[in-house]
Amino acid sequence: MGAPGDPGVRVSDADRDLVLARLRESFADGRLTHDTFVGRADAALHARFGADLRGLVADLPSPRRLGADTAAACRRVLRSAERRLRGWPPVLRLPVGPQDRFTIGRELACDMTLGDQTVSRWHASLQWDGYRWLLADLGSTNGTRLNGWRVTDPSPVGAGDLVSFGGVTFVLADRPR
Q: Could you give the CA distance from residue 59 to residue 148 in angstroms, rounded to a whole number?
């Protein structure tokens, strides 16, 4: 049995996946044409030995390795940019004052009217139970979601929660004092 670097050693699926990932990155960077990428990917999937795989990426620059701190910073910047490009959900301020029930829907009589067709006429409500706000779905067609989970029973909500009424999403916030 040879060493892992020995060209006569059979390759594993993990070895193939690494080479395919490097080919995908090179194609995305514009270093490979579509035909070259397809041909090399096919060859990687049929490769039997380490030398076969190494030959597929030999002319490509070696991948850069980022430190953990740099990689984490890059991920934060990308997430922030993605939020701005997508339009981070608008803010929905929790009600203050004597009103203990707040309705949301397409109907003009609702406390908060949303003009989106995915929102039912009487879609959801926020109810103050004396200690906290509870979000409830009012039998809407497209559902109410709290942090991605469908609301089936009244659920407590607070500042920072993401709420969706049909296809419309908001981030909840307290009223400024």
A: 45
